[in-house]
Amino acid sequence: MPRPIVATVHPEALRHNLERARHFAPDARVWAVVKANAYGHGIERCFDALRSADGFALLDLAEAERLRALDWRGPIHLLEGVFEPRDLELCSRLQLWHSVHCTEQIDWLAAHKTQVPHRVFLKLNSGMNRLGFTPAAYRSAWARLNALPQVEEISHMTHFSDADGARGIAHQVAAFEAATADLPGERTVSNSAAMLRHASSALRGAQNLAADWVREGIALYGSAPDFPEHGAAHWGLQPAMTLSSRIIGTQSLQAGDTVGYGSTFTAEGPLRIGVVACGYADGYPRHAPSGTPVLVDGVRTRIIGRVSMDMITLDLTPVPDAGVGAEVILWGHASSGDAVLPIDEVAAAAGTISYELMCAVAPRVNFVAG
Ligand SMILES: *Cc1c(COP(=O)(O)O)cnc(C)c1O
Question: What is the DSSP code string of 24-63?
Answer without folding.
Answer: HSTTSEEEEE-HHHHHTT-HHHHHHHHTTSSEEEES-HHH
